[in-house]
Amino acid sequence: MAVSQDELETVAAELGAALAARGWRLACAESCTGGWAAQAITAIAGSSAWFERGFVTYSNEAKTELLGVRAETLAAFGAVSPETAAEMAEGALRASRADAAFAITGIAGPGGGSPDKPVGTVCFAWALADGRRLRAHHHFAGDRRQVRAQSVRLALREMLALV
Fold it and tell me: What 3 state SS string does 25-84 have?
C-alpha cells in the first residue's frame, strides 16, 4: 500500500496538535525506519514546541547504550520483537524530557528475514509518562521503502490515538 510523504506529514501535524493541546512533548526511537518518523515530524513548522528528540538505534549496541535495552531481552527475543520495542520506547522516555514516546524496530528487507520473522515484520511500542503502554507486531507487504513508510504511518497514527 503506497504511503505518501504528504500523508505522513498530515498525521504528524495532527499528532503535534494533540500533543501541543496537552502541553506534552514527544520522543521516538527508530531502527528500521532510520529516522523517517523524526523527519516527518520535523517537516512540520513549529514541531520544536512538541518534538523533544529522536533516537536512531540501528545496531543492538545503540539500542543498549542509548535506550537501555537489556542484552538479555535482545538475546531472548531478538532486535525485532515487541519486547525490544517496548524497552526502546521506555528508554526513549527515560533518556528525554518527553511525555510520550514510540519505538519502531523491524525487517524492511530485501534481505534479513527468516521463517519466524519474514521481511516486512515490524514491531512497535508506545509509552506515555502516565504509565499507559501499548505494543504491536505487524507484517507489511511491499518493498523496503513501502515497509518503512507503512511503519512510520502506523507509529504516528497509534501515537495519535493513544494521546
Answer: CEEEEECCCCCHHHHHHHCCCCHHHCEEEEEECCCHHHHHHHHCCCHHHHHHHCCCCHHH
What percentage of the chain exceeds 90 in pLDDT?
A: 99
Count of Cβ atoms closer than 10 Å to residue 22 Cβ: 11
Alpha-carbon distance of 89 to 27, in angstroms, equals: 8
pTM score over 0.90: yes
Q: Measured between alpha carbons, how far is 51 from 116 in angstroms, rounded to an integer? A: 35
Instruction: Count Cα atoms within 13 angstroms, Cβ side, for 110.
Output: 1
For the chain, what are the domain ranges?
5-162
How many CB atoms are located within 10 Å of the residue 2 CB? 9
Between strands 133-139 and 121-128, the pairing is: antiparallel
Residue in this structure with the C-alpha cell 537501555, named with its chain if needed: 68
Residue 27's identity, in one-letter code, is A
Looking at domain 5-162, its CATH architecture is Alpha-Beta Complex (3.90)
